[in-house]
Amino acid sequence: MPEEEKKQTQKEVYDAPKTRRDIPFEDDNLFNKMFDADLVKKAFAFGIPYRKTFFGALAMLICLAAGNLLSPWFTKLIIDEGITSGSLKLGPFVIGDGSVHGKFLVVTVVCAMFLGVWIVRWIINYWYSVILTSLAQRVINDIRLTLFSHIQYMSLTFFGKMTGGRLISRIMGDVGAINNLIVNGSIQLIMDILTAVVVFVIMWNMNHTLTLWLLTMLPLVSLTTTLLRNAARSSYRDVRRKNAAATAVISENVSGVKVIKSFAREKSNLLNYKRANRDLRRSIMHSVVVSSIFGSSVEFLTVIGLAMVFIIGGRQIAQHQLTVGEFVAFLGYINHFFTPIKNLGIFYNTLQAAMAGCERIFNILNTEPEIKDKPGARPLENVKGEVEYKNVVFGYDPKITIIDNVSFRVEQGKTAAFVGSTGAGKSTIINLLARQYEINSGSITIDGNDIRDVTLDSLRSNMGVVLQDSFLFPGTIMENIRYGRLDATDEECRQAARTVGAEEFILEMPKGYKTDVKEGASRLSTGQKQLISFARALIADPRILVLDEATSSVDTQTEKLIQNALRELFKNRTSFVVAHRLSTIAEADCIYVLEHGRIIEYGSHSELMSLENGKYRELYQIQFEKMEKAGIL
Q: Residue 112 and residue 56: Cα distance in Å, rounded?
């Protein structure tokens, strides 16, 4: 890319207009504690079922650490007992006689012992890696399943507040941070503490003076950790927030690709993502800088400690107070002493990332669904389909009424249609029937049972819903039809497709019913997707059928093809139809006309058309004239 073009692109990114993604999400800034015991307790609860595996991995890690701690001891033996004296006493046995040959023998024996220890260590390390990975994946799986299950039962208002990208970030990113705390972090923390204590005891027994001088470095290490604490916490929170924002941009762009292309907004969206990605990169770099400063500081303090040991240790060697082998071994143990301390700083960073992830995940898990089964809710059984609304009042905001004191009754097997201007409350009426939202007052009953007194699962399993924007899952056409009833046979799925008039175009597809529709059903027209949705609803054999603008996306020719199918579909079922095309509801048993959340007219098509100044008649005539001018009639 030419330099001028590159600079222009960078300028566009920096100057891109602010979007709602720049506003921190309401739960992105909740974490204010360095350590929250309650969150940690909840997180570690996921590891309790695997505690035996956890302690097994810890035991293996202790063995590995012990192997590491033997290295300086072997070095001491080689120098003092091998190279210097040429004689080594192992229990009742004495190896070497002080001669050159004896020195070579001692060195050979010690090296063989060292090699044996590392072979055993290699075997243990292999199984440790396998067991630790298995443990980590099980914990991750449990956390993700718990989170996904909880999200599945959240109310629609929850999804109105939480974007898809942020939910993906919670399930994929934050869960990994918690796993690092539960599995890797906690095991390493225990091991580091044990190692630091053991190494200190070994060093103290080897040389009190050198150990005391080395301990003078610890206050400086503690001070460094304290100074960087707030910066580390802030940086990890910022990384999680920026990562969630960048993920949200990707998710929204993929799901809204048709709208983006329709308005030629590719460049604008690219700039938005570049800016989100730039912010994420900066946040990560800042986090790396903070982490590097801590690591470099500990390394620098280690070097200072080594310098003091060299000065004091060299003097003791000159005065024959310390052997060369002991001095070299002590130097080796210095690294083993400071490495756990450095790891404690790394664990602190892991803890901060995990705390940020914990508070975001448990913020979701602690959010109760607004709509759930009340204690003692009973299943709705032997449904006939008689539905009654009594003085129903509802508003998404309690201060703003959407449905205002609505009452009506739909008898078993009858069809009720709802019409009205945009925003009149048509779709809201039927959403309340499925308890997608909770009414503010009044009651809705099915066969005399208040829908708040029955289980949600039994309520919704007795309802078949076809929406205006039909959604097909990635998979075959057959699988999408069977989604309505998972135990349906292939023949039952084919029969459902025939009934709604979908089989003709399905058989024209490359693999018929086995054709993969791909994500978003890009191979199918809008009308074809709607017909498959009809078949999916039919295969469920619901007692109550809901069509929410289900034919608005179907062309006139296709609409005529499914009219007969709908008549069959409505037979022996209580049906609720929200229709934009009034011609599709002419045969409904009762049509309700809504305006500002109230029923202003109701009756059959002929009864409503007979009203001189009726709203339904006005809407019908306007629509009829539009269709006539378009040459549809």
A: 28
Q: Which two structure tokens, joined as six digits, stand for 64? A: 């590995």
- Contact criterion met (CB below 8 Å) for 545 and 467: no
CA 581 to chain centre: 40
Cα separation, 361 vs 168, in Å, equals: 11
Of 238, 235, 247, 241, the residue nearest 273 (C-alpha): 247
pTM above 0.85, yes or no: no
237 vs 290: CA distance, rounded Å: 13
- Where is mean pLDDT largest: 346-360, 387-401, 463-477, 540-554? 387-401
In terms of CATH architecture, what is 386-462+546-568+575-633? 3-Layer(aba) Sandwich (3.40)
Q: What are the structural domain ranges in the chain?
A: 35-365, 386-462+546-568+575-633, 473-541
Q: To the nearest whole number, what is the mean pLDDT of the chain?
A: 79
d(CA 611, CA 624): 17
- 396 φ/ψ angles, rounded to the nearest 5 degrees: -60, -35
Question: Which one is the CATH code of 35-365: 1.20.1560.10, 3.30.420.40, 3.65.10.10, 3.30.43.10?
Answer: 1.20.1560.10
Q: Are residues 188 and 342 in contact, defined by beta-carbon separation less than 8 angstroms?
A: no
Check residue 165 and give its pLDDT.
Answer: 65
Going by pLDDT thresholds of 50, 70 and 90, the confidence category of residue 555 is: low
Say how far apart CA 397 and CA 391 lie, in whole Å. Answer: 18
Q: Of all residues in the chain, what percent carry a pLDDT higher than 70?
A: 84
Q: How confident is the model at residue 226 (pLDDT cuts 50, 70, 90)?
A: low
φ/ψ of 408, rounded to 5, equals: -165, 165
Rounded-to-integer distance, Cα 402 and Cα 398, Å: 9
